[in-house]
Specification:
Elements (H helix, E strand, L loop, with lengths): L2 H15 L10 H4 L8 E3 L6 E3 L16 H7 L6 H5 L6 H5 L10 E2 L3 E4 L2 E4 L2 E28 L2 E4 L2 E4 L2 E13 L2 E13 L2 E4 L2 E4 L2 E4 L2 E2 L2 H22 L15
Parallel strand pairs: 3-5, 4-6, 5-6, 6-7, 6-8, 7-9, 8-9, 9-10, 10-11, 10-12, 11-13
Antiparallel strand pairs: 1-2, 13-14
Length: about 250
């Protein structure tokens, strides 16, 4: 893991939660919760680990997967003209097996300091990321696009400084937010649009300084927000995970 990724996580948690959390490795399990699981296997020709995007397309192909650098060498092989002449559906599996390899490590554009990732392009400073483009300073995420400083997200577009957010677009400084758009500084919120400074709000639009969908004013909001984030940071620092999340925030605890 690049040192910069560790620093980015510390900066992001300080910005969102008021507490810089570290080391990043101890929060890996929590960051991967509620995000599509990323399968990995050994290369078909070496002991190198390959990470696959969690997409149905790749499931039947993993047993013949190789690293990108290995695929470049294997691509130089052929089955010969004579065998190619006799190729049909009945013998294709047998004749093509010596060259039947593929790689999920497809890349395009210019990429800098991208580690343990697959299917990406035009990105920099990313770690354990899958199916992404035009991203920087992100980690443990699936399918972010045109974004920066995202950790533990799934399907987030055109966003920045977000932690544990899902299926959203154009978010800024959000934590545990799902299915929302054009919003900023929101925590434990679902299905918002054009909102800012919200706590535990759902199915709402154009709210500001709101708690449980009620606008309470800046002073009251900031007082409650401070208490909530202090408790969140305390639990994360102690347990390295948080039981409360956007998927259970409205559930009754048995």
């Amino acid at each position: 893991m690049h040192k910069q990724i560790e620093e980015d996580f510390g900066m992001l948690t300080r910005l969102l939660l008021g507490k810089s959390l570290s080391p990043l490795g101890k929060y890996e399990g929590w960051l991967q919760e509620h995000r599509r699981e990323i399968p990995c296997r050994k290369s078909a020709v070496s002991e190198e680990t390959i990470f696959y995007p969690p997409l149905c397309f790749y499931a039947p192909l993993t047993s013949r997967g190789v690293k990108q650098v290995e695929a470049l060498e294997l691509g130089k092989k052929d089955i010969g003209m004579e065998q190619a002449r006799h190729l049909d559906f009945s013998n294709a599996s047998k004749l093509l097996r010596p060259i039947a390899y593929f790689t999920s490590e497809n890349t395009f554009g210019t990429n800098v300091d991208v580690e343990e990732c697959s299917l990406y392009g035009s990105s920099s400073m990313c770690y354990r990321m899958y199916s992404f483009v035009n991203c920087k300073h992100c980690a443990y995420s699936f399918w972010p696009r045109d974004s920066e400083y995202l950790f533990g997200v799934d399907t987030i577009f055109s966003s920045k400084f977000c932690l544990k957010c899902y299926n959203s677009v154009n978010l800024t400084r959000c934590f545990e937010v799902s299915h929302s758009s054009n919003s900023s500084d929101c925590y434990f919120c679902h299905n918002l649009d054009a909102c800012s400074e919200c706590l535990f709000c759902t199915n709402a639009k154009s709210l500001r300084y709101a708690i449980f969908n009620h606008e309470v004013g800046k002073e009251a909001y900031m007082r409650v927000k401070k208490l909530v984030l202090e408790e969140v940071a305390r639990k994360l620092e102690k347990d390295k995970r948080l039981e409360l999340n956007i998927f259970n925030a409205g559930c009754c605890k048995k």
